[in-house]
């Protein structure tokens, strides 16, 4: 890292919810998911909140680095239909390289908090991480 976020640093990310990010789209092979209402899925909401934290951390990384989500503590509290816009805020609350934690909040166009919570990310050296993943895949999957 050539720098790191400071506690209180905040970024904003605006996203218009796509029709392919609804609950039934999360696991289309699941009959149970396919039967659920077409609202923005919690799984995609978590990804959106992570995206804001990724954007907040990215300018501080070296080209050989990236970050991975390691902590998710999110409350999804309001439904969001396709086409609605969410404004996501990520504020750094823990800055302890290589670990960073963000207070994340998604607010809809009515001003309702659709989701909020904490999200933690660890900075990784990409090549080292990929070597570890390859070794694990070899142990668990083999040369299938």
Distance between the termini: 37 Å
Q: What is the strand arrangement across the widest sheet?
A: 1-3-4-5-2
The number of helical elements comes to: 4
Order of helices and strands: EHHHEEEEH
- Which geometry do the CA atoms define? flat
Unreliable stretches covering 5 or more consecutive residues: none
- Which structural class is indicated by helix and strand composition? alpha+beta
Largest sheet, in brief, is:
5 strands, antiparallel
Question: How many β-strand runs?
Answer: 5
- Mean pLDDT value: 96
C-alpha Rg (nearest Å): 17 Å
Percentage of β-strand residues: 35-45%
- Amount of helix: 25-40%
Question: How would you summarize this macromolecular structure in one to three sentences?
Answer:
The chain is 27% helix and 38% strand. The chain has four helices and five strands, in the order E-H-H-H-E-E-E-E-H. Strands 1-3-4-5-2 form a five-stranded antiparallel sheet.
SSE layout:
Layout: E1 10-16, H1 23-26, H2 31-34, H3 42-57, E2 65-76, E3 85-96, E4 99-108, E5 113-125, H4 126-140
Antiparallel strand pairs: 1-3, 2-5, 3-4, 4-5
